[in-house]
Amino acid sequence: MTSTQPTILYMHGLNSSPLSQKASQLTAALERIGMGVQLRVPALHHHPRQAIVQLETAIAELGRPMLVGSSLGGYYATHLAERHRLKALLINPAVTPHRRFDGYLGPQTNLYTGEIWELTEDHVVALAELEVAPPGNADRYQVWLQTGDETLDYRHAADFYKGCAVRIQAGGDHGFQGFAERLPALLAFAGFDPALFADLDFSDL
């Protein structure tokens, strides 16, 4: 992509898809400001190695996108941001997920597509291969956490990313309540001209 406009690569979480609420809201926001082509939201394969191949392909196509990752997508985004020195905005990100799958191996169902697949030890090994040291760059990272996350303990991410710009909001949930209202902050961090969205209300997305 040769456009001079910023680009965004969104990474959904485990058993999620581009049809998830945040992905849909971000897609709608980019379309509303006439920048829909600057966004990629791939349907990630459940196996980490295949998902990373998909994401590396998207990064090559987009140039130097800002990475946006939710849950397990936040773990992928951190790995790729460190590898390529990219900006990343992480939303309730998973931290060391390979250490937290005890009791979860076995059949899984994608909540959006209905696909049934098997979570195996090889998935866990592949996730471990992606682990990086805690980043400490407040300029390249924003980490958005909600204390009401019922899936992940927000304190793990708050500690892991303590060298970054961490924003902790009381309440909420794993899906991150109020995401649409914070889309202007996301677009600004990505580098889009604020004039494109200064007068827009994204709360209806």
Write the layout of secondary structure elements.
Elements: E1 8-11, H1 21-32, E2 39-40, H2 48-62, E3 66-70, H3 72-84, E4 88-91, E5 106-109, E6 116-119, H4 121-128, E7 141-146, H5 154-160, E8 165-169, H6 183-190
Parallel strand pairs: 1-2, 1-3, 3-4, 4-7, 7-8
Antiparallel strand pairs: 5-6
The major sheet is characterized as: 6 strands, parallel
Radius of gyration: 16 Å
Main sheet: which strands, in order across? 2-1-3-4-7-8
Average pLDDT rating: 95
CATH class: Alpha Beta
Low-confidence stretches: none
- Full CATH superfamily name: Alpha/Beta hydrolase fold, catalytic domain
Residues in β-strands, percent: 15-25%
The CATH level-2 architecture is identified as 3-Layer(aba) Sandwich
Give the domain tally: 1
Question: By helix and strand content, what is the structural category?
Answer: alpha/beta
Describe the structure.
The protein has 205 residues and is of the alpha/beta class. Helices cover 31% and strands 17% of the residues. It has a single domain (8-193), classed as Alpha/Beta hydrolase fold, catalytic domain (Rossmann fold), CATH 3.40.50.1820. It has helices at 21-32, 48-62, 72-84, 121-128, 154-160, 183-190; strands spanning 8-11, 39-40, 66-70, 88-91, 106-109, 116-119, 141-146, 165-169. A six-stranded parallel sheet has the order 2-1-3-4-7-8, sandwiched between helices. Strands 5-6 form a two-stranded antiparallel sheet. The protein is globular. 37% of the residues are buried.
